[in-house]
């Protein structure tokens, strides 16, 4: 895990940096004034945070725990610089902290500190040594990853901890990962203590999840099916819960047939950092000797189910080869016909047999009514559908819904002029796994012989509208060449009266949000990378003159 230690050549005089003309003190949470002599010569963390910020509220308890561990050393202090909007919010939030703060009333000093230390987002923790020299601008990452062990936050200390982590990974075992302090057991959903010896000789999956996450809810159902098939094959799952409330943890864990670390066990946070957790859900696979086989096997479980066991590279390579052969032999009927279902429906409820669609150009449209990007894209797709249909009567779209209830499905489907899979049809999850659908909307083109033509149809329609049809590689290449040709003569840089800080460069972007019309863009854009500000060429100034 890369965490840069920013060693500044200059030092900051905290008595100057933290003070103002009218103030030469800091405050405690009870309002008591404290002179700067109390922090002179100490390692000081400047904590930029705000009560309205969710990540701040999540991080502050971790910082409080680290602070209470380090405070007895006598040479460590934290100063809170608030980003709250009003005094009441500041007082309530500061009341949960054990350290000092710049008074909320001194807005000018708080603003100057944010500018001096280039604070772009919160939470942000700057660590200064006893001379005011910056040890690290990444104190939040250090505390999250190492906790109080990061003290005294020098590059030597951080490098040593990283080396220790690498050594620990080389000697990794189930016990080194799951045993913590005096706790050497796991728990069942009936709250019974299960000895670690029960895991010996088993392939173990560590399931990082939370009960409130939609993706985790859906994946848990799939994982339970796999667990039921594998539980007699030296296989076990251990839940690493990220729930904040015990009630949420208890309710969700009661429905899970596997084991777990106790709620809010301190080892949960350690494992989150150890496996560099970034996405939910995450499923780490450990071999019987405790070594990591897969950092995240969620996609393998979703795609292959119990066939992915034991999750070795050899087994997954074999499955990938089988998948490749299936894709090469793909037909429309092979992906849309099952033993129970062989039809799609119109929004009038008419059943259309799949075999009648064989030989057509088909687009599979994955979307849902609850998704704002889907609702924004739908009118564009409807317009393109009608235009393409005029040119090619065999063209058709099939809607694959991710809606959670039938009324929502019926509501959005009633506005669509094409076909769909019925609500709650088992083929929906199969197709999502088959085409590795992660985010929606997604539109995938299927050729008349049933092979996959293009998985980026949404982006192509956003850029070229109906002109992108029939979505073949050869056709898209011609469109791109024409688009590149059209940019000849455009200025390589431009200016904009709204964004006048920097020049906008003409570059090719895979995807961006136009800051002018607020619609998604693909391809050429006038863009400022420093500010993440981009404009469609049609929204850029002087476009009429360029044309």
From TrEMBL:
UniProt-listed PANTHER family: NUCLEOREDOXIN 1-RELATED, THIOREDOXIN
Transmembrane segment boundaries: none
Coiled coil (UniProt feature): none
Entry keyword Mitochondrion: no
Keywords from the named record: NAD, Oxidoreductase, Repeat
Protein name: protein-disulfide reductase
Keyword Cell cycle attributed: no
Residues in Thioredoxin domain copies: 1-163, 326-466
Organism: Solanum bulbocastanum
Signal sequence segment: none
Domain of life: Eukaryota
InterPro entries assigned to the protein according to its UniProt record, in alphabetical order: C1-like_sf, DC1, Nucleoredoxin-like, Thioredoxin-like_fold, Thioredoxin-like_sf, Thioredoxin_domain, TryX_NRX_thioredoxin_dom
